[in-house]
Amino acid sequence: MLSRMFTECDGQLNVSFGYQCLGPRWKETNNAKEISTLEKDIKKQSNKSTFSCLSGAALSANVTLANTNICNGLIGTGLLPGLDSPKTFQRVPSSPSLSSADILSTSLQSNVSNLSNCSSPQSDDIEWDTTALRSMSAPSKTDGFLNAMEVQMAGGAAGEDRVQAVCSEENGWLFCAIYDGFNGRDAADFLAGSLYENIRINLNTLQNGEKEDGFRQSVLSCLQQALEQAENDFLYSVELAMDGRPDLVSIGSCVLVVLLYGQDLYTLSLGDSRAILATSEGITNGLMAVQLNDSHSIDNEVERSRFLSDHPNEPGTIIGGKVKGRLKLTRAFGVGYLKKKKLNDALMGILRVPKLVSPPYVSTQPSLCVHKVSEGDHFGIIASDGLFDFFSNEEAVNLVQYFILNSPSGNPAEFLVQQLVSKAAKNAGLTLEELMRVPAGRRREYHDDVTVIVILLGSNHRTATASTNQ
């Protein structure tokens, strides 16, 4: 079931997306009674998916420092609409018109030209380019599990955050990703235009006949290889374009990818976005919040110790609580000037990092995890760090649980964002209306860009709650 919600506050348009997984027997309907009946009967259906519902919401705080659609053209127009918020899910049939190799090679060629030529802002009335979407998601017919005859997609932007979700009811898998860009949107745009396709190509080389543990490790290896390929391609493009745009060497992004396939929930992360699991497994009352990935920041003592051990006896590696005085993150995509001397040399004056003794100072080694979903696992929260500036893992889980109990057919991700804005306004001594009138850019004084996805796990958690409260 596709859903779309628009809210307008003093001229600012926010869009959230939602998706109800109804299994292989689902059919589109515009009849409210039919939809209600379908919702009640979800738990009776044979559903291949491990999740029953996906919801997402996002809010902008930052002015975009660069407006380069890094994969402009074939991929970029489909994945990066001008409307600065996530779009609703859209059913996308596969097309054999282009091979994956054609897509990647074309996008990489366009990267170089578009990095050098920053395009003007796009109009807010631009809609999805469905031709580009079909090309991007055109899987070849093989035995790989990410190949499907039909997928459903959502994607969009909030300030420097980028978000993607791709689902196949047919094959029972879900891919979600949040790219939290910094110092500009170029790195996050690049990830939105290439990482999913890299992952799909790598995963579809796997053989399903492997033993269970071996197969899981192979999936994790494929995720890491896809990230490495994207990083190499991005930094290569930056090197080619840095004469015209030296600022590109300082632009980077956090990466959080979640892949749900069967009972296995895989995560890959760089930076400080978080994947939180809400589970009742092993406890008697309520839900426990389990963070599935590490926080790659100087503020994390474990990560700080690892970073210092990688640069022994070198003074000035941490200055003012930041890596070389520039970045709190210890692992991130892009940010080439903290990884390669020649990229640092492209910067002028005080922008250049002095005494680059033992680069790289920012790692691209991701945190990887696989979790087998159990009956006690209720939902997952995937969010950029803007959410956790205001709520702990436990508070976020409690808010989602409260919302689901009281509004079983609503959007818990949007509720989290609403609660964040209310708390930000209160902390600043403003009313909600006053905060919402603050333009993007100045809003960064009160809250960061925030993107949230909530995945309801299992087929019965939400519907059982809904029937209880009717």
Automatic annotation (TrEMBL):
Gene Ontology molecular function, alphabetical: protein serine/threonine phosphatase activity
Pfam families registered for this protein in UniProt: PP2C
Entry-linked CDD domains: PP2Cc (cd00143)
Catalytic activity line of the entry: O-phospho-L-threonyl-[protein] + H2O = L-threonyl-[protein] + phosphate; O-phospho-L-seryl-[protein] + H2O = L-seryl-[protein] + phosphate
SUPFAM superfamilies given in the database record: PP2C-like
EC number: 3.1.3.16
Enzyme class: hydrolase
InterPro entries in the record: PP2C, PPM-type-like_dom_sf, PPM-type_phosphatase-like_dom
Domain PPM-type phosphatase: 145-457
Protein name stated in the entry: protein-serine/threonine phosphatase
Organism of provenance: Asparagus officinalis
